[in-house]
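Help! Submission page says 'invalid entity' but I think these are all valid:
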Amino acid sequence: MKGYSVSRRALLKAGTGVAAASLLGLKSVSAQEKSIRVFWWGSQERADRTNRAVDAYKKANAGIDAKTEFAGWSDYWPRLATRVAGRNAPDLIQMDYRYMFEYARRGAIVPLDQYLGNALKIEDFGKANLESCSVDGKLFGINLGVNSSCAVYDMSAWEQAGVEPMTFGTNWDEFASKCAAFAKGNKRRRFYATMDASGHEPAFELWLVQNGKVLYTEDGKLGFDEKDAGNWFKYWADLRKAGGCVPADVQALDKSTLDTTMLTLGHAATVFPHSNQFVGLQQLNKAKLDITAFPVTKGGKPGQYLKPSQMWSIASDSKLPEVAAKLANFTVAEPEGTKILGVERGVPASSAVREQLAPDLDDVSKKVVDYIGKLGPYTAKLPPSPPKGAGEVFTVLERVSQEVGFGTSPEEGGKKFVTEAQTILKRG
Amino acid sequence: MVSYTAGVAVDKRPAKAGRFSRLFFAGNGAGYMFLLPWLIGFLGLTLGPALASLYLSFTNYDLLQSPQFVGAANYVHMATADAKFAAAMKVTFIYVILSVPLKLAFALALAMAFNRGIKGLPVYRAIFYLPSLLGGSVAIAVLWRQLFAADGLVNSVLWLFGIDGPSWISNPNYSLYTLVVLSVWQFGSPMIIFLAGLRQIPQDMYEAASMDGASKARQFFRITLPLLTPVIFFNFVIQTIDAFKAFTPSFIISAGTGGPINSTLFYTLYLYQEAFGFFRMGYASALAWVLVLIIAVFTAFSFLSARYWVHYDD
């Protein structure tokens, strides 16, 4: 029976072979002719709209197939990175400003300049909206919509509390006294004027800019010190003490998704999302919502900025980059496609598209477009790209803000945050 | 020709040189053919990736660039400079130390109640087993979030008694304990095994003991517990390994953050964050191997200690 036996060496060889194959990532079976894959993050609402747009494109272009797939924000990036590593990246990828630089500089996505004027007719996006999607002078993203941070509040809740809600130009001190007044007038149990935004990075960043600082400098270092961070934590600690914002154990229920905002959970009358999320947020909330700018710093600088809420990028592994570019173009520049997507991903970068959409917009979408239109005086220029490790620094901000919420002093919190953030940036 | 079963069952002398290779490779061709599907799966999906991760644990690898060899740097960082690693270790050990004994005690108590010959036992058994089937699932973790949130069911009930409860799952003083409760609630599988173990104990021992005037408590400590030790040992080892590997409850309930303030940062969740949140595949691999080591050492100690407290019939 010797013929059947397997030598240990052969087994070992087979084992290492398999191990090596899994290490290198086997090349996937190549896709069908003219079939591309599209991948994005976002809500069900976004998925419905995007799928309809892709279907409309397929109908108008026989012989082209596009398979779509979406995930939540936090699942999206690991999945995308795994696929890129496995040389199995989707052709058309929804990209974020935070990740674009890394993907572009490592050659995972391709420059799009060669398609400008032919497959991509997006010159009318304007210089600012093309530059905000560029890395080292080359275009790597197709702007899917412009957004900014914002304040969203429940109109009737403020009315019931008998306090005039915040508006454009309300400063931080005024906001605090409004919230304290809200606490006096409020009758609902476990309900407060505002979320606790001390661990919310966009809020901290714009507050820094208003005070003449930045979150990250051009060379990827921290642009603020312990005192700045301490002051920020102190503002919210005072507000918390006055009953103006939700307590720490309630804020910790917020999982950075629209269905777990303090507004949706029924714990606060004001939250600070991104402006394009207003559409999704209104859909989740029965109460009528309104959108306005963040509080300003008295005598400070404008702190908000307009950024691409997301963009389309094309994977360097794509065998049909031109098909992908054409589909992307359909969703951002052709009336048939732009009408389906609407302003759910942000306000379209092209003024022609904005004008074309204007008459058909519902009230909710109109509020978003108006908001971006009015934001001019409150905006500064786009900050430099965040350095490697920025994502982890964000988690530290959240954690330290919770520690302050549960009893650590704001000064100590400021020290802790800066020390840990510097360690992370050094490690990269 | 040496038969496999004969070799194992009969021969207790130390193996001679060459015996090993004859035992495993001579004349067992057909056996290996039957084994092949599993073997391919094991080599390709378990051993291969495991070896790859051992290599990766000595590199920096962020998926986008190829791995760079850094020697033992990942292990050194873990031991000397990683406060979050220490936090994750603490959380995991507290979880293991609390949840395993509580769960086993609970499972044993219920198994003993069932062992008295209740009518409709199979139905009860099925009902009580249900949480274990569901417990590891996402749906139950979501349910837990609803139960123990600020406005959850638990607080609504407390409110009826005039108690204004905290938001259990999002308060670092309580959050880990809600996860321990979730784990204890999944007592089903150790309970079934205990029940089977209890059935093995000969009834005449109890009869003899009660004739000699032994109390119920004495019978429990002198008959039930000693005779049940093999089953307790089995449950203990399996449950402890499971507890070390716990991931889903914290991942869902804290939305992957391990928060608030790292209070529910299970070791495996930290590993996941490093790998898929911050793309440090090398470091995450090192973390994985440290966990393997911890579980291996723990299991080895359990088996070594077994000879002092586990009583086998023979």
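Support: the input was valid. A stray whitespace character was the problem, and the output above is from the cleaned input. Chain A has two domains: 35-146+308-370, 151-304+388-427.
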